[in-house]
Amino acid sequence: MALASNKKVVVSRFDRESLQGFVQTPGGLEGDAIELMRPEGTVVRVPFSETKLVSFVRDFEAGETWREHQAFAARPKSPGLWVRFRFRDGDWLEALLPNNLLHIEAAGFNSIPPDPSFQNQRIFVPRLALTAVEVLGVIGSPLRRRPAAKKPADEGQLKMFD
Fold first, then answer.
1. Contact 112, 78 (CB under 8 A)
2. Which of 17, 133, 145, 162 has the maximum number of C-beta atoms within 10 A of its C-beta?
3. Per the domain annotation, does 124 fall within a domain?
4. Average pLDDT, the chain
């Protein structure tokens, strides 16, 4: 059994202001809502239908900062699927998904944002918040190009070194 821990998150919502609090992992992002413990100690259930994304953050002071870093500055270096999430309200965000279908969850997508060294370490995007997920690239694919077949030495060619 995995150990549970509380992670700092900022929940971005479509029509309302964002919420700050703690999500217990694993388990806080399952079902049809996010179970969020507010800093005051109250527990709130935020339905996925109202949630745009959940940012796992370093601290609460910076607030909602994912809009500052919506896209990768260059092609990502870490292995995975480079995707663009398109939200119901027309907004978008690029992220990196694991290149393993066993890690894709039913409720949404756990992914790495464009600048994980910044405020947002990871993000969770509920499926209900999206209209499309576009794959922009596959980074670090285990498939390798086959080595080119060696051409047979030309019989009429003189050998310089024996």
1. yes
2. 133
3. yes
4. 82
